[in-house]
Write a structure and sequence with these properties.
The complex is a heterodimer of chains A (938) and B (135).
Chain A: H1 10-40, H2 44-72, H3 79-84, H4 91-97, H5 102-122, H6 129-145, E1 150-152, E2 155-157, H7 182-185, H8 203-217, H9 219-231, H10 236-266, H11 277-301, H12 307-329, H13 347-365, H14 370-388, H15 391-413, H16 426-448, H17 450-457, H18 461-471, H19 474-480, H20 490-511, H21 524-547, H22 554-576, H23 586-606, E3 609-610, H24 619-623, E4 632-635, E5 639-642, E6 645-655, E7 658-670, E8 672-673, E9 678-681, E10 684-688, E11 692-693, H25 698-705, E12 706-709, H26 714-719, E13 721-722, E14 726-735, E15 738-740, E16 748-750, E17 752-755, E18 759-768, E19 784-788, E20 793-796, E21 799-808, E22 824-833, E23 839-848, E24 851-853, E25 856-859, E26 864-872, E27 877-884, E28 892-901, H27 904-931
Parallel strand pairs in A: 9-13
Antiparallel strand pairs in A: 1-2, 3-28, 4-28, 5-6, 6-7, 7-14, 7-15, 8-11, 9-10, 10-12, 15-16, 17-18, 18-28, 19-27, 20-21, 21-22, 22-23, 23-24, 25-26, 26-27
Helix pairs in contact in A: 1-2, 1-6, 2-5, 2-6, 4-8, 5-6, 5-8, 6-9, 8-10, 9-10, 9-12, 10-11, 10-27, 11-12, 11-16, 12-13, 13-14, 13-15, 14-15, 16-20, 18-19, 20-22, 21-22, 22-23, 23-27
Chain B: H1 3-25, E1 28-30, H2 32-37, E2 43-49, E3 56-57, E4 66-72, E5 77-82, E6 95-103, E7 106-115
Parallel strand pairs in B: 1-2, 5-7
Antiparallel strand pairs in B: 2-4, 2-6, 3-4, 4-5, 6-7
Classes of the chains: A alpha+beta (938), B alpha+beta (135).
Chain lengths: 938, 135
């Protein structure tokens, strides 16, 4: 008995699932057809492959279009739409709600793979068509299985993007799911939850599709490499893969840095890069792809060089993309990462997909025959073992078999050249550079994979524990707890290794272009990059002086020198060697861009200046070694100095889903003091002798303009403001750091940045109220306790409350105060100044028969109430409770401000690098077309 | 200069460096009892925010001091001091890693990592509580 639900798009759910199923089935057919066609050539199998692929493409494109249709029609009965959309979101964020969840992410990824595959098919693929398309269809089938949403008992197979809320497991069996009119009855279906507010940023409209295109573009080189192994033809694919690989380099690189830009603008972790697992896992495939693409270049000019390494690197890039999908989507990082990752229940499926891809590659590395069957069989056994025996041990075993297969293939099956290329050749240094980048990727992968490593350590925990007890080794104890995580100190964890590696491979990009392939009999090539080295050295010295580097920073200075050398040298190469022929300058331009990215990243990070830091502080603070005060407290209306500016927190206002905190910035002018002014400096009080303009430091002015007051009177003490060299000048600009209000996911701060050509001033709210604090109906907020001694003072709203003196209430005074003779009473004499006329008042501490008689003093018009709850005679301290009225309350925020020098070089470099790489791709396509005139396709 | 040698040497060097940095730069992960037994030594303590006690942060008194109670993995609850402004989302955090040491009988943390549900995760949204009786 089926229920007909009113107003629900039940058909869309059925259609969507049909489309996914179609994609899956078509993909299977295509994979089988193309696989057979590899051996049999054109014929029925080949046709089956093509038709299967068409069905698959129709299914995936159709499903994606349908998800968009559901989003634009606001169909909140679908879980995916309900989770990622609401009525308030503007059009651009409706676009990005598509990839707000994993299901959409998979769809975008698949759509891009399809687009690239179609481009490949239109470009006269020849005999590569069958194997390349078999791989594509197979991978797409695997990916579309992630969207099947089938349940086998408790085992989930794929996430269904067309799941309706009433079918979701958490709602199973609830009465409303059986009500045909539930859509109109339940108010929650009128609007969705909306996209995670952190993703509601314009970068999130463009960053994910770019990144997914980058991910998708790693598949083509992988598929071509596998085809090369399959067809046992190690040359044809390499030629064709070059432009695809560099296309991937350009797009993936841009995608990663767009992610950095998003983090910089929308997340408040204070920078663009945090060595976060999510960031690392997109950087690593890029590094490997760059290395692999350069090995392909070598093979173009020197065929047969480092075949094994070329196969490995080109393929690893795609395998690492799959691995990072596994890391970030399976929930395995859960315990050790800053972020929480969704455990979407498809970990086994993702792991199976990852291991399947790796196993396929490792098996194909071996030539057809006994070895391929042996190693393929061993891997299959290990995979069965993962399911039925110990998963951790069997995965370790599987990895061992794979490594053995690679080694075996290198030694026995793949062609090797015995002759080593001479030292001073382009191919040698390109190879070394590629290997260095690969080493850098290995290191980052290792750090990111520590949570995975913990799973492998677990079975050996008892053994390490025994080892620790036997030897007392601290290392064994660490391993026994199997709780490794990358350190929090980026310098030690990442930079210590990444900086030297980057220094080396960037230096290599500075001179390698001048070298030729083969032999370099001409000595001149060694001198050509020297000119730019000298220029770079001079520039480095300029930066050294400008940004005040210290000796321990030598490694990063060396890296900056390498970057400058690379940029200058590649620019010089375009002028000297290419004579300005832009068509061939793509590679040099990309190198310049890359050098700029790294230079900007290193300099802006190393010399970032937290200007909100409390630099003056009192001495008590400085002694406290643990104090790391990086944030500035700003009271509404107060103007305080911060870095090169005076800042004032003006107001808070709410705008849409943001609470905005307007902070005005004023230029700093030298302070003016006039005769008679009283100031304090380092605890001493001085009086101004004559009118003058302040110097940068007090000691410069002391002798000529100030008189020391050894024993200041009360008024002087009270009025003495700390000496300051500056005063606020004219208004320069206003920044509005925000807090995004989101009840469901918690409020999130968003920075606001003032951009200059040579630096950014980046500010974000560390703490701020998004609404007025709680108060009773008369506006009194909760009381705050203070221990006050004589001469203590407090800031209350815009006034200052000072405890002037303490006196015992004498017998004679008692009747006038309404006290009994036996009462014990102490009087606290307060003075309230500022924001109105000076007022004095007295609060009493009264004890009658050892009971405290509360004496509340209320200054209604000044918005303040005071009560004394206790008195400690030995310390002459009153325990005072003070209430403040909302009418006098001053809002305040805690803000952090960081100056990032030269950060624009990073963004500009990214643009230049992408442009250069795309230029190189275009040039390579042009050459290819010239060499192989297009044949009419059959 | 065999290529393979270069590769092998590089990889081994980097892996050793990575291993070295993992085991030297990480604070050892412990529970409160161990941290209090060895005051002055930097440790990492993981646990969850104890919501029975309030999170105390009064920027007017000290911008960089947050006090709260944390329950470690063995269930011991301790008051801890974080020498930073109160991190956003502390109350919503699912788990906390504190890096710090015991000073004068109090655990003082200089660095803290939080696992928050807000970033990549959505709450599992059952409509159960808010659902009207079917009728």
């Amino acid at each position: 008995m089926d229920i007909v639900y009113n107003g629900e798009w039940t058909w869309a759910a059925s259609l969507g699932r049909l489309l996914i199923a179609l994609a899956f089935a078509g993909g299977l057919a295509s994979t089988i057809g193309y696989t057979r066609a590899v051996r049999e050539g054109q014929g029925p199998w080949h046709a089956m492959g093509r038709w299967g692929f068409r069905i698959q493409a129709a299914g995936i494109f159709g499903a994606s279009a349908l998800v968009y249709l559901l989003i634009f029609s606001h169909r909140y009965e679908f879980e995916y739409v309900w989770k990622h959309l609401n009525d308030a979101m503007p059009f651009s964020y409706m676009l990005s709600s598509f990839w707000g969840g994993q299901e959409g992410g998979f769809l975008v990824w698949m759509c891009w793979i399809l687009v690239l595959a179609i481009v490949f098919l239109r470009r006269n693929p020849g005999k590569l068509e069958a194997p390349v398309m078999a791989i594509h269809a197979g991978i797409l089938t695997g990916l579309s299985s992630m969207l099947l949403g089938l349940w086998f008992g408790d085992f989930q197979f794929g996430l269904d993007p067309f799941l309706m809320l009433r079918e979701a497991p958490q709602n199973a069996g609830l009465p409303w799911t059986l009500n045909p009119d539930y859509l109109s009855l339940i108010p929650q279906f009128a609007d969705g939850q909306g996209l995670n507010p952190l993703l509601q940023n314009y970068w999130m409209v463009i960053h994910p599709p770019t990144l997914f295109l980058g991910f998708a573009s790693t598949l083509m080189p992988f598929a071509m490499a596998v085809s090369g192994l399959w067809l046992v033809d190690h040359k044809t694919w390499m030629d064709r893969a070059i432009s695809w690989a560099f296309f991937g380099v350009a797009i993936l690189g841009a995608g990663i840095l767009m992610g950095g830009a998003w983090a910089y603008e929308a997340l408040s972790f204070g920078g663009f890069w945090a060595w976060d697992p999510v960031e690392n896992s997109s950087l690593v495939p890029w590094l490997v792809l760059v290395a692999g693409a350069h090995l392909l270049l070598i093979n173009k000019s020197k065929p047969g060089t480092a075949i094994t390494a070329t196969y490995l690197l080109v393929s690893l890039s795609f395998l690492l993309v799959v691995y990072s999908t596994f890391l970030t989507k399976s929930g395995i990082l859960g315990d050790t990462s800053v972020h929480s990752f969704v455990d979407s229940g498809i970990l086994p499926q993702l792991l199976g997909f990852l291991l399947g891809c790796c196993a396929l590659f490792c098996t194909l590395l071996l030539a057809p025959g006994r070895d391929r069957i042996l190693f393929g069989g061993l891997q299959a056994v290990m995979m069965v073992g993962i399911v039925v025996l110990d998963p951790a041990l069997c995965v370790l075993g599987l990895i061992a078999v794979m490594l053995a297969a690679v080694l075996r293939a290198h030694l026995r099956h793949l062609p090797r050249t015995d002759k080593e290329s001479p030292l001073w050749t382009r191919e040698f240094w390109m190879f070394v550079g590629g290997m260095l980048m690969f080493a850098s990727a290995v290191h980052i992968t290792f750090q990111t994979s520590l949570p995975v490593l913990n799973h492998f350590l677990e079975p050996f925990s008892a053994g390490f524990e025994r080892l620790h007890q036997a030897t007392g080794s601290a290392l064994a104890r660490k391993l026994a707890t199997h709780d490794l995580a990358p350190g929090t100190d980026f310098d030690a964890t990442y930079h210590a290794i990444q900086v030297p590696l980057a220094f080396l491979f960037i230096s290599i990009t500075a001179f390698t272009q001048y070298l030729r392939y083969g032999r370099n009999p001409n000595r001149q090539v060694f001198f050509m990059p020297l000119r730019s080295l000298i220029a770079a050295a001079v520039l480095t010295v300029v930066f050294l002086l400008a940004y005040d580097f210290e000796t321990w920073e030598a490694p990063r200075v060396a890296l900056m020198l390498a970057c400058l050398w690379s940029a200058a040298s590649n620019a010089d190469y375009i002028i000297q060697v290419l004579k300005g022929k832009w068509d061939h300058a793509g590679a040099s331009i990309a190198h310049i861009g890359f050098a700029m990215v790294i230079f900007g990243a290193v300099l802006s990070n190393a010399k970032k200046d937290i200007v909100s830091q409390n630099r003056f502080g009192d001495l008590a603070m400085l002694n406290e070694s643990l104090s790391n005060e990086e944030d500035l407290l700003l009271l509404e209306g107060d103007t305080v100095t911060m870095g090169a500016y005076y800042v004032m927190y003006r107001e808070r206002r709410q705008e849409g889903i943001h609470a905005k905190f307007a902070v005005d910035y004023f230029n700093t002018l030298p302070a003016e003091y006039s005769a008679g002014d009283v100031v304090s400096n380092e605890g001493f009080v001085f009086q101004c002798a004559e009118d003058h303009t302040a110097s940068p430091t007090f000691t410069d002015d002391l002798e000529d303009h100030w008189t020391f007051i050894p024993i200041p009177n009360d008024r002087q003490k009270r009025e003495a403001a700390p000496w300051s060299a500056g005063r606020p000048g004219e208004h320069a600009f206003t920044l509005e750091p925000r807090i995004q209000l989101n009840e469901r996911m918690g409020n999130a701060p968003e920075p606001d940045t003032k951009r200059y050509w040579n630096r950014d001033l980046y500010t974000h709210i560390k703490w701020g109220r998004v609404s007025d604090p709680e108060a009773d109906e008369d506006g009194w907020m909760g009381g705050r306790k203070h221990d006050l001694m004589r001469r203590d003072s407090l800031v209350i709203g815009r006034s200052i409350l000072a405890l002037d003196s303490i006196s015992a209430v004498t017998m004679a005074e008692k009747p006038a105060q309404g006290l009994l003779d036996k009462d014990l009473a102490v009087a606290a004499h307060f003075r309230l100044t500022g924001n109105g006329p000076d007022t004095t008042f007295t609060a009493l501490y009264i004890v009658r028969d050892s009971l405290l008689i509360p004496d509340m003093v209320t200054l209604e018009d000044r918005g303040i109430k005071v009560r004394i709850d206790g008195f400690r005679p030995t310390e002459a301290t009153f325990e005072t409770v003070i209430w403040e009225n909302l009418s006098i309350r001053r809002d305040f925020i805690v803000m952090q401000a960081i100056v990032f020098p030269q950060i624009n070089l990073l963004w500009l470099g990214c643009l230049i690098m992408t442009t250069g790489a795309l230029m190189a791709v275009r040039q390579r396509r042009k050459n290819q077309r010239r060499r192989t005139p297009a044949q009419p396709t059959a | 200069m065999s290529r393979l040698n270069i590769v092998v040497i590089l990889m081994v060097a980097v892996l050793l460096g990575a291993l070295f940095s993992v085991f030297t730069t990480n604070s050892e992960s412990v529970v409160f009892s161990r941290a209090f037994a060895e005051p002055g030594i930097e440790f990492k303590v993981s646990g969850t925010l104890d919501t029975d006690h309030p999170v105390l942060y009064d920027p007017l008194m000290d911008v960089a001091e947050t006090r709260f109670h944390m329950q470690d993995k063995e269930g011991e609850v301790q008051e801890v001091i974080l020498r930073k402004a109160k991190p956003t989302g502390l109350e919503q955090s699912e788990s906390i890693d504190l890096y710090g040491k015991v000073v004068d009988g109090e655990f003082v943390a200089t660095e803290m990592l939080m696992k928050c549900p807000s970033k990549y995760n959505e709450d599992s949204h059952s409509l159960a509580e808010s659902t009207p009786e079917a009728g």
